[in-house]
Amino acid sequence: MSSLNKDILKKAFLNMCTAKSMAELYEANFKQVSKYVHATSRGHEAIQIALGMQLLPQDYAFPYYRDDAMLLSFGLKPYDLMLQLLAKKDDPFSGGRTYYAHPSLRDADKPKIPHQSSATGMQAIPATGVAMGFHYRESGNLFAEENKAKGNEQNPVENFTNNYDASVHSEDSRLRGNAPISVCSLGDASVTEGEVAEAFQMAALKQLPILFLIQDNGWDISANAAETRAQNAFEYAQGFNGLEAITIDGANFTESYEALEKVIKTIREERRPFLVHAKVPLLNHHTSGVRMEWYRDDLEEARSRDPYPVLKKQLLDNGFSQKDIDEIEAAAKANVQADFEKALEAEDPKPEDLFTNDFAPTPITEEKGERSPKGAEKVVMVDCALFAVEELMRKHKECLLYGQDVGGRLGGVFREAATLAQKFGDARVFNTPIQEAFIVGSTVGMSAVGLKPIVEVQFADYIWPGLNQLFTEVSRSCYLSNGKWPVSMILRVPIGAYGSGGPYHSSSVESVITNIRGIKIAYPSNGADLKGLMKAAYYDPNPVVILEHKGLYWSKVPGTKGATSVEPSEDYVLPFGKAWVLQEIWKQENVETLTIVSYGMGVHWAMNASEEMGMKDQIEIIDLRTLFPLDEETIMKSVKKTGKCLVVTEEPSNNSFARALSGKIQEECFKYLDAPVMTIGSENMPAIPLNSTLEETMIPSTSKVKDKINELLNY
User: Where's the Transketolase-like pyrimidine-binding domain (predicted)?
Assistant: First the structure.
């Protein structure tokens, strides 16, 4: 006899019957449903339902693409899942944009599900970010006022998202055992991903309230565990000190429910991480497009571990009759059939539905506040950013800063976070391990729980490990969740070459970043712009990357004094997508005129070249300030006036953002042009050498820009 009450067993069996009926219906109607790829939970249902039945609305869950039984146990209907199966307009998760069982949910009465991608294992970092957000909210008395309130509607503390109920993070919630947890569902094959290790490391290091549920069916797609894994997830977890792990039979509902009940209770009360390794059979295809009969040699053994007859017997052993069971099965089957017929008739998206929710609306649309307060002293660019972050942290408790070496001992390798840890404490300004993927991807979870993280990678050269998270999770979250989960974060990236930084501390990466849709990108040339854009980025509900040229930080490079600024006032904001005509000229019929379009260091080369040539009346200079959104209107208006255009970049120009912009200008202004639009950038070599002569030869300069101006004016 099970210790579980009959209501739990009955509800679990109904969910399992429903999930099984859905898998069977999809197989019976394969031609109708296989237009879009799907995977089902068949064989995994017991552990999924055991988990789903125990989560609360304040919990956050990151299911993966085989977790439809888990979603049913959250309270979703077959119809909801079928709308996504058929990519219908009213798919409640994504509006027909993403695959079956790729949920994103923000219903008040259900666990919250931020968006996650199909890339296996990638959800581990955002899920751990949620738990880190919980940990931050519960650290010290940072959010004491919120914890006393019922929610932010009655909360005197100004909160960025204004829709996160922080009352669940009280000591009372912990003692009552209903403090929220984060749940990350993973297949055992995905645990070999390096980014999963980053998540485990941080969960163990910070002792975060997260449950990693590992569903181990012994397979990747066609590769099995013996050929791809040196150990299973339970054994792997032993290497992370502070991550407690258990292994269970995930095909036995009662064992799964009782084991998870203890684990979840412990996490709610003790606020520490657990891993549950659940052995399950895979009784259906990997996906509808990869059929099990093509490669599986263990199907009979897998069917012998089917969770369905196990749960049916547990019902019979607990007083249910065969008639009771038959009725539950029949009701589930009829409900699934009715929902399928209804879903087939549902409306498809219209072409115009493609163009919604790529970004959430930002409140910052106009330049406001005092840019150059009277009597204020000029400060270097790095200090403008530092003061902006300090002002934000002082005003907003949900603002925090983390990355490598930004903590109290150093305050950043460029001193860009100096004094912040001392002023705001180690809970708000802290060092991370060398984990660019975690630094970037954790912001998805932090943002989801109403926080505003400012994070940084130490040099642009080291952004590459973080690109996976930036691309798959951060940039697509708003669009693929149909607007429910924009990721509000700022990623600071010191960039560019100066002073013999060598091949791993000098790169420009903007062309790669600008090819990621769904993020905003700033690249300021001076301190006032950096401060105004930093403030605008904070109040923007979307992800923002700020590229900060380290050669401009202290204006140590000759000819960059223009990067220093009178520090703008605290309320100064500069909207994205507004270029600055830094040097404006008038239309002239009898003199050759030219527009230079640039950003970052290129602006200084352009200004210096114009001055040294005595051509300030002939050269109009546009500082883009932001690379996305891009102020095309200002650019085109200028080029149509001057008739010639030079785009200046520090990147090697082949296949670059600058070259693409040149092409766009040429396309739109062709009939106004007196010469081809030209581009000048670094030499097209694989890296910037350490030797100062080679570095100087590699990158542009005022002198090189002057030569290019002469070439263009004399064309």
Answer: 379-555
pTM of the model: 0.95
- Among residues 556, 181, 187, 580, the alpha carbon closest in space to that of 371 is found at 580
Q: Do residues 562 and 585 share a domain?
A: no
User: 278 and 219 share a domain?
Assistant: yes
501/545 same-domain check: yes
Q: What is the pLDDT of residues 459-514, one digit of tens each?
A: 999 999 999 999 999 999 999 999 999 999 999 999 999 889 999 999 999 999 99
286 tagged catalytic? no
**What pLDDT, in 10s, does the model give residues 19-73?**
999 999 999 999 899 899 999 999 999 999 999 999 999 999 999 999 999 999 9
CATH number, domain of 626, equals: 3.40.50.920
Do 401 and 528 belong to one domain? yes
Domain final residue, candidates 566, 595, 625: 566
Given 286, 505, 549, 604, the catalytic residue: 505
Q: Dihedral (C-alpha) 608, 612, 614, 618: value to the nearest 10 degrees?
A: -40
Are 700 and 672 a contacting pair, CB within 8 Å? Answer: no
Cα-flanking dihedrals φ and ψ of residue 709, to 5°? -60, -45
Q: Which two tokens stand for residue 365?
A: 């649309």
Distance of CA 102 to the CA centre of its chain: 16
Tens-place pLDDT, residues 382-440: 999 999 999 999 999 999 999 999 988 888 888 888 889 899 989 999 999 999 999 99
Token duo for residue 139: 């650290």
Side chain identity, residue 469: Q
**What distance in Å separates the CA atoms of residue 51 and residue 30, rounded to the nearest whole number?**
29
550 assigned to some structural domain: yes
* CA Rg value for the chain: 28
DSSP-derived 3-state class of residue 411: coil
